[in-house]
Amino acid sequence: MTMTTTSTSTTSVRKSGNRLGYRFNVVGILGLTVILSWALVAVFAPLIIPYPVGEIVDLDYFGPMSHDFWLGSDYLGRDMLSRILMGARYTVGISLAAVTIACFSGVVLGMIAAVAGGWLDTILSRFLDALNSIPSKLFGLVVVAAVGSSIPVLILTLSVIYIPGAYRFARALAVNINAMDFITVARIRGESTWYLIRSEILPNIVGPVLADLGIRFVFIVLLLSGLSFLGLGVQPPYADWGALVRENIGGLPFGAPAVMFPSLAIASLTISVNLLIDNLPQKIRDRA
Amino acid sequence: MNNRVLSLVLSRLLIALITLVIVSFAVFFATTLLPGDTATILLGQAATPEAVEGLRKAMHLDEPALFRFLRWIVGLLQGDLGTSYANEMPVADLIGGRFANTLKLAGVTALFSVPIALTLGITAAMLRGSLYDRAVTVLTIGVISVPEFMIATSAVLIFAVYLKWLPALSFANEVHSLSDMLRIYAMPVITLTFVIAAQMIRMTRAAVIETLNTPYVEMALLKGASRPRMVFRHALPNALGPIVNAVALSLSYLLGGVIIVETIFNYPGIAKLMVDAVSTRDLPLIQSCAMIFCLGYLLLITTADIIAILSNPRLR
Fold first, then answer.
1. Chain B contact for A253, CB < 8 A?
2. In a designed cystine with B269, which of A69, A90, A247, B102 is the match (CB 3.0 to 4.6 A)?
3. Which of residues 216-255 of B touch A (CB under 8 A)?
4. What homologous superfamily does CATH list for B3-35+81-311?
5. Lowest mean pLDDT: which of A215-219, B219-223, B254-258?
């Protein structure tokens, strides 16, 4: 049944004459543009910042937006624009690393559980469900209290927190595929578990899994920012966007731009990812 | 209620209990991973080895980790939460009043967010595709995709800085009148309500739309029932289970929100206590707070599951 739907959808896309076979709408492209530009900023930040990050360049603290300092200055008089551009490295980099580890491990474990079944499936599911019933912020707090906060610890903690979700999602998809005839045929042919996972199941769940990766990326960005805001994430002298809000929270009663712009940066990234996921071409999203 | 429902509910409770054991295991061992010896940290660098050894004995630190875990669990069950490292007060005394404060905050938030979210969610589902529905959807997606502290800071900017209705990041401990009470609770409750209501609206809307797509609702439409009758008589009673499930699940987001909100508004609740304990590395306090949070979370999730089981007519 899947095979017929897939083949009809490919033919219909081919008829539309689009070479890539993917049709995006405007909102999706907008989201993708914002995400790509933040990615570029993260890579090239040291080249494009107008002032060095650590240097006090404004005599005034919590300075307003001006010609010299586009986004104002922070609580020490450092240029806010430079700090936000550099902050993109930490927020985007850490979240991307964490989401990659989380989704890779979750999806591999999920497919193994679905294909192998039996006691392995039961134990894995029970254990990861238990992990899932620890609230994510609390988990972060406890780990940071125990081993202290550094960037590798943050990446690992964030990925461990989101493995159960990725596992559950991938397992549910893989269990559906596992019941299909072509899997039974492959089993009768005597193919190994590894072959089943790699060549039969993975190609059929890759679209939804990628969409899920985007959603999980948003969760991780939000959790990382939340932890940094509590002072438990990225530690000074480095600062991601959450830490920037924390540093400058004293400017809130004056409505300083230094408080709002890091939050706006987070919002622009997360909302863009959500928009992109919601407007992904049907072909990628609903492949399974 | 027949045997099948009863056994499903019982198995769900059993799973919750097993989960709680695994969670307590995780919390205990995560906090004992701390590099360095607790006794040395407590006594400082200048302590003599004899003093450190004495304290280790007194705190049972020389025993295997499993024994200490069992001792800790038994203590928890008997209501002995241990002694805080930071100020040597019993943890139970530290938590007591703070816990009540957090519950009050959560209760007031639920009181506001549940009716608002249900109204918006159900009406948006009824008018699906309309401008109103799209506005609600965009708003909820916006609130869900931004961090909680951004909602809190925006609320402060709007209500305290520009409108000057409420004090900014201050918290008065003495409450003299109703207006004091309102001023204290207004900002945290507004922030939390936004966070919780957005989740709840999304889930409620999805639950009602799912019911509106069923054949029996289509049947009601075809036989000529009016739109309100179709929704209130045919769809809503069947969507009630999923909706209550959604409410319980969204309330579990209170836990995450409360940590940020109590910190930013200096509210003397248990989450603030825990964040402070993390910065002073006060392990017994962290363990107890973490267990309370996990217990609350598990309670809400399990309730949601049990409601979903009870409301499923196919199991009755």
1. yes
2. B102
3. 252, 255
4. MetI-like (1.10.3720.10)
5. B254-258
